[in-house]
């Protein structure tokens, strides 16, 4: 008899005390090796978490609307993670967001992926 391995119940990232997310929030994960390459390219750094393998960036809810994030990024609606993560960066103020378009463009740059809107449209 084979026993199924239990899967971790997804957990929602929690905002640090005093932070508000008026637009709701999702998360974008990147392998931890890419995190330090993205940081200097961003005009504003919001809350960033790590689970030891990935960095998780907080973005406004629905920042994936009609936008495929470049591999190996992972978009997590509702900021649901497969495990736990700890906060590694908290911005000044009360808003937790990293601007999604600069984050998207930075990820495209460090992964060598053309932004989705710049790809040729086939007839």
Give a structural overview.
With 123 residues, the chain is an alpha+beta fold. The chain has helices spanning 35-38, 100-111; strands at 11-12, 26-31, 48-50, 54-59, 74-76, 80-81, 86-89. A 5-stranded antiparallel sheet has the order 5-2-4-3-7, with no helix packed on it. It has a two-stranded antiparallel sheet with strand order 1-6. The termini are far apart.
Q: Keywords, please?
A:
123 residues; 5-stranded antiparallel beta sheet; two-stranded antiparallel ribbon; 13% helix; 2 helices
Please write out the topology.
Elements: E1 11-12, E2 26-31, H1 35-38, E3 48-50, E4 54-59, E5 74-76, E6 80-81, E7 86-89, H2 100-111
Antiparallel strand pairs: 1-6, 2-4, 2-5, 3-4, 3-7
Taking the sheet with the most strands, its summary is: 5 strands, antiparallel
Radius of gyration: 15 Å
Percent of residues in beta strands?
Answer: 15-25%
Structural class: alpha+beta
- Individual helix count: 2
How much helical structure, as a percent, in the residues?
10-25%
**Cα-to-Cα separation, first versus last residue:** 54 Å
Structure summarized in a few sentences:
This protein is of the alpha+beta class. It has two helices and seven strands, in the order ββαβββββα.
